[in-house]
Amino acid sequence: MAFVGSEPPARSALGTSAVKILIAGGFGVGKTTMVGSVSEIAPLRTEEMISEISGPKDDLSGVEQKRTTTVALDFGRITIDESLILYLFGTPGQERFWFLWDELSLGALGAVVLADTRRLDGCFAAIDFFERRQIPFILAVNNFFGEQLYTAEEVRDATDLDSETPIMLCDVRQRESSKAVLATLLEHLVARVAATPVSR
User: Fold this and answer.
1) Does 2 map to a domain?
2) Is residue 151 part of a domain?
3) Residue 2 confidence (pLDDT)
4) For the chain, what is the radius of gyration of the CA atoms?
5) Full domain range(s) for residue 95
6) Residue 200 resides in a domain
7) Any idea what the CATH number is for the domain that residue 58 is in?
8) Are residues 172 and 37 in contact, defined by beta-carbon separation less than 8 angstroms?
9) pLDDT for position 194
10) Which residues of the chain have pLDDT under 70?
11) What is the 3-state secondary structure (H, E, C) of the chain?
């Protein structure tokens, strides 16, 4: 099975498919938290302290208590069943690290774009990145603060996403919520394959 703009999943000798999924979005939106909440292994993190030098470069509006930031990637793994393992790669959010996105996206079958409705413009770069490369994605609106400011359809209007791209509300601190996000992405990928005409 192949997806537009991406490589087929790698299959081991045991018949298990290994699928690469990206977790992307703006600075401080919860990418590291999502990978950590759902990974069955201790996640690999490349976090550094936010220094006085980097502080002015990063918009801390809404995340004033944030003390660390991802400078390369976060990595985790979750086994769906005996035939499917997801490898999760969280991208850095700051603009000065966007050059890493091209490398991280190689071989990815799909992506989760995380959004924060208090700073919705933070997800626009990730949406544009995946649309341009024809990598399927869903938009997950992360609710860290217990109050959902907008509905999924209001977010769809604000981000100008087509009706086929799933949008869901979530709290990535909760393992079950993060799992539901990944399940929605997998369903979206399967639906895209089913809708793709078979070439003869």
Assistant:
1) no
2) yes
3) 39
4) 16
5) 16-195
6) no
7) 3.40.50.300
8) yes
9) 87
10) 1-16, 46-72, 93-98, 145-147, 199-200
11) CCCCCCCCCEECCCCCEEEEEEEEECCCCCHHHHHHHHCCCCCEEEEEECCCCCHHHCCCCCCCCCCEEEEEEEEEEEEEECCEEEEEEECCCCHHHCCHHHHHHCCEEEEEEEECHHHHHHHHHHHHHHHHCCCCEEEEEECCCCCCCCCHHHHHHHHCCCCCCCEEEECCCCHHHHHHHHHHHHHHHHHHHHHCCCCC
The rounded mean pLDDT for the chain is 81
Whole-number Å distance between alpha carbons of 131 and 159: 12
Q: Identify whether 84 is part of a domain.
A: yes
pLDDT digits (tens, 9 = 90+) for 109-138: 999 999 998 888 989 999 999 999 999 999
pTM for the full predicted model: 0.79
- Give 51-62 pLDDT, tens digit per residue: 454 445 555 555
How many domains are there within the chain? 1
Residue type at 145?
F
Q: What does the pLDDT read at residue 35?
A: 95
- What pLDDT is recorded for position 62? 52
